[in-house]
Amino acid sequence: MNINIQIFYTSDLDSKIKQSASFPVNTYQFKHDPHKEAARVTFEWWKLIKKNMSYRVILKEVIYNSEYDITELVKQLDDTPIPDIDLPF
């Protein structure tokens, strides 16, 4: 199963950018909690967008399947701190 995602963001250069794409989702997870699964998939895409940009970008809005706003869910994932890992060296 695929969902359509539209992501809106701005750059440090004051550019407003919109990207759209279709992504596969885990059907079981999507049936259980569609917004959470859509946010997970979007967050993976958002990480790639940020990695490929040579300047800082700020997430403004995320819509999936042309009607569901999951902006806050994706922002929460983006703000989650990376856990401390106790490395043996």
Question: Can you walk me through this structure?
Answer:
With 89 residues, this protein is of the alpha+beta class. 38% of the residues lie in helices and 33% in strands. The protein is built from three helices and four strands, in the order E-E-H-H-E-E-H. The protein has helices at residues 27-32, 34-52, 71-79; strands at 2-11, 16-24, 57-64, 68-69. Strand 3 (57-64) and strand 4 (68-69) form a beta hairpin. The chain is globular, with a radius of gyration of 14 Å.
- Rg result: 14 Å
- Counting DSSP H or I runs of 4 or more residues, the number of helices is 3
What is the quaternary state of this protein? Answer: single chain
Any idea what the shape is? globular
Count all strands and give the number: 4
Summarize the structure.
The N and C termini lie far apart (43 Å). By secondary structure, the protein is of the alpha+beta class. The chain contains three helices and four strands.
Write the layout of secondary structure elements.
Elements: E1 2-11, E2 16-24, H1 27-32, H2 34-52, E3 57-64, E4 68-69, H3 71-79
Antiparallel strand pairs: 1-2, 1-3, 3-4
Helix pairs in contact: 2-3
Features:
3 helices, 89 residues, 38% helix, alpha+beta, 4-stranded antiparallel beta sheet
